[in-house]
Amino acid sequence: MLWGTALAVAPALPQLAEAPGHSHDGHDHVHTDPAQAGYAVAAPPSEETYAWNLPAGFPLPYVPPDNPMTAEKVELGRLLFYDQRLSANGTMACASCHEQGRAFSDGTATPHGATGEALVRNSQGLGNVAYYSTLTWANPVLTDLERQILIPLFSEFPVEMGITGHESEVLARFQSDPAYQARFAAAFPNEAEPYTWGNIIKALASFNRALISADSPYDRYLAGDLEALSGAALRGMDMFLSEELECHHCHGGFNFTGSTRQRNTVFVEAPFHNTGLYNLDGRGAYPPNNPGVAGVSNRPEDMGRFRAPSLRNVALTAPYMHDGSVATLEDVVRQYEAGGRVITSGPYAGDGRRSPLKSGLVSGFTLTDQERADLLAFLEALTDPTFISDPRFSDPFAAEAQALP
Question: What CATH number should be reported for the domain holding residue 364?
Fold first, then answer.
């Protein structure tokens, strides 16, 4: 399952409420109507029994009031996330494109759906997705997991899980399974007939929100373990936070992304950036099947603008960028050193450094080999080994198989 690759989905999604534009602070922002986008309109649940177990410095995630977190919903969502029966033809699960060992990404440039159709965007890691203010590479109006999950389940262009037209058939698989009967009853105890797509989506969203990653060497250093970061990583952190490199402007805060929302957020901005990855025509054009926010807003100036993802566990989520076209983390750093990417041949040839649509934050810088190695050491120190092996997030069916005699 790839969260949010489709440009055409069912059901229809609302259009941007306000034309996006560029601010004067060097940052790129898309402003949407908070009421339409769901920002700070409904208050979070006043009572919540779910134990988040967050470390110091991590705020409570936003949770929609109509889907409060419970351990029972999270566990049901985990089962559904790993169950191939959730796809129409029974060949893939959400976990097919979101592997725990890869921080819930999948290691390919762009994955394939249940019918073998190639998708157009890279599968993003899901760690700390509960804190994202926008949930896809280039759609500012998708701000809640419950709405975003509709895409991989029901999209037809391209097909991901392929459920459209097979809704009753797929639902019946779980309704007739005694193990799922007990799980649905526990997750939705006040409903006589809990087997609905709405409840499946609520359970999947709850499991996704539970995927908290907060135990990297960087986190342990902040918690007082001064030996957690190597000398190289400490030097790299200083460079990361410097005004010369500008990394922290797009990848700042506790979650290393500007696309962040938490429990008491009043107003949310949705930053999207053109990093000079392509410049096909000398005027900033991107490949036509992947134009960025422009594919939603239909505004030429939004060409090539994509969300800056979190850098937590970034060393595990190669290849990089919205289309998986950058193979290694070092390649990413070198691209930003150059101030954009130069492609010398082929259909995508062009000099991204000279794109008139490129963000002013991507201006290039100079690193020695040692400085580059130090920066990479810091990025690697954002890897959370506990997260990728946490049994609370692991495949329950694999565990059952291992337990068999």
Answer: 1.10.760.10
Tell me which residue of 90, 45, 96, 56 sits closest to 209, measured CA to CA. Answer: 45
Number of domains composing the chain: 2
Judgement on whether residues 158 and 288 belong to the same structural domain of the protein: no
| Of 26 and 69, the one with more pLDDT | 69
pLDDT bracket for residue 265 (50, 70, 90): confident
Q: Give the tokens for residue 25.
A: 């602070």
Q: How large is the average pLDDT for residues 136-163?
A: 96
Is the model's pLDDT at 12 over the cut of 60? no
Do 138 and 240 share a domain, yes or no? no
Burial level of 211, CB count in 10 A (0-12/13-18/19+)? buried
- 270 φ, ψ (degrees, to nearest 5): -115, 95
Give the residue ranges of DSSP H helices in 216-328. 217-222, 231-240, 247-250, 294-297
Peptide bond into 158 cis (omega under 30): yes
Q: Which residue has the tokens 């929609």?
A: 64
The values of phi and psi at residue 139, to 5°, are -125, 100
CB atoms within 10 A of CB 112: 17
Task: Confirm whether 5 is domain-assigned.
Answer: no
- Domain of residue 295 covers 217-380
* DSSP label at residue 31: -
Q: Please give the average per-residue pLDDT across 364-393, as a whole number.
A: 99
